[in-house]
Amino acid sequence: MLAIRTKNLGKEFSRQKKAGGLLGSLRSLYQQDRERVVAVHSLDLEIARGESVAFIGPNGAGKSTTIKMLTGILHPSYGDAQVLGFTPWQERQKLAFHIGTVFGQKSQLWYHLPAADSFFLLGRIYELDRHTFQQRQAELVERFELKEFFHVPVRKLSLGQRMRAELAAALLHSPQVLFLDEPTIGLDVVARQNMRNLIKEINGLGITVFLTSHDTGDIENLCRRVIMIHNGQVVIDQSINSLKRNHLATKIIRVRLETPIDSPPAIAGAQVLKHKGAGLKISLDTTKLSVDELYMRLRQLAPIADITIGDPPLEDIIANIYRHNQTGGDTHELAQEVAQI
Amino acid sequence: MNWHKKWRKYSAVTLTAAQSRLAYWQEMGARTFFFATILFTFSGLWGRMIGADSTVAGYSQQQLVWYLTLTEAITLSATSLLQEVEQDVKTGQIGYLLAKPLNYLLYQAAYYTGEMAVAFSLNLLAGGLVAWALVGLPPITPSSLVQTLVLVALGAAVRFCLLAAIALLSFFVEECRPFYWIYSKLIFTMGGLFIPIDLYPQRWLKPCVGC
């Protein structure tokens, strides 16, 4: 059963161009140059109910435009989309009863009022009857630990407390799909971890999570699948594990030898990142040298006391893909490259 | 049933907006003080011009002061509708509202009603006390009170429609303040702030009365 399906979905804008300087400003008064911008280009997505998907891409890739089309805020220029069986831009209000949204940089809670007042208003907006509202509110207050600040004006809450309340507010009407846009932005380590645990818990209840974030920790911890778009097109759609395993053929290997060595070994395909006594940190290019071969070469230096083999951080992988796109990498080329993996 | 739910929904917006407006008590206090000051000034001005026992176009000083009290209580209850919509569009906050089962315009109308009800009540209370102290109570009858309330409600509704029309321009031009500037200056000169509308030349008023 699909929660979200898009077929050939696209959005184009027209925006004004203006030459710099005073002359450019004066010229723009009588002559307006406009350019066509393709925000989203032929987007095909299929997201099953209960999935947790990271929808990522560099700034200006088309993420927000896609979310706006999926929530019914924007009409597409062409194509089709169904969210829980509704066409978002035609049935916006009906769909709204079944989706929740949390935008990290914006707030749905009233700034000068306690969260309790915003919950009351949201209960009415989502047309919950008194009994359902009270029951649901009590559940959320307990699960999200809001009790101690539920009646304190939102302006006096810490960002972590506010975001917990925001997330709880988005769940008041028991949505089936949750759109999260940078839900942990600006949070400290503990608050971020709390938010991630709560989102995981929500997804565990069968709610589809559609997450947009630049924080790779969020992506890695919360999602099993990653969809990356660039210039409005999907360039990667695979599981986080496949992305880590396949996209960069690099392993980070930490070795501790039985005896110290004077200088780091020169091995083709293996770059020593750090050497101190008997300890080595090596970046291995597995297309040039296998882990087994490296192991054998290291064994020739000294017996190995300990070895750990790890993937490079997801952040490096994503940064590398973004860089590939920005430095002349062609979207189709990258998509083909990824498909071949 | 459907209407009942809608009523509950938008009345909750009105109630929440009223509560939120009360949180800005310092701003409200400053506005009330300003109101009392201009009422005091105009009362003195008209007292000198008209004199305690004479009239202008059939209006006594007392009637003019109470006229100003009522019209200014409405004017100074201005809500931030224009800025709200403009900011919603510019910052993308509108995304939050449109992703909810709401009609955006009805939401703004409910919000406006809540904010205005609080501000108008407080302004009328403060202004009424000043006017009472300066020129005494006007002759109030139940029918005149009802007529006044109906007129205030209609005036607020007309104002909402005009402001909403200007605010919705934000979707096309983003910056709608120039339009508001023209509107506010028109209201300032033509809307009866300086003198009651009845004092305008007859050839201006006749077409309106004819309507």
What does this structure look like?
The complex is a heterodimer of chains A (341) and B (211). By secondary structure, chain A is an alpha/beta fold. Chain A is built from 12 helices and 13 strands. Chain A has a 6-stranded mixed beta sheet, sandwiched between helices. A 4-stranded antiparallel beta sheet of chain A has the order 11-12-10-13, covered by helices on one side. In chain A, strands 2-1-4 form a 3-stranded antiparallel beta sheet. Residues 335-341 of chain A have low confidence and may be disordered. Helix content of chain B is 78%, strand content 2%. Chain B has a two-stranded antiparallel ribbon. In chain B, a hairpin with a 2-residue loop joins strand 1 and strand 2 (59-60). Chain B is globular and about 60 Å long. The two termini of chain B are 38 Å apart. The mean pLDDT of chain B is 84. Chains A and B meet through helix 3, strand 5 and helix 4 of A and helix 1 and helix 5 of B.
Summary of the model, kept short:
In chain A, strand 6 (177-181), helix 7 (189-204) and strand 7 form a beta-alpha-beta unit. Chain A has 341 residues and is α/β, with parallel strands linked by helices.
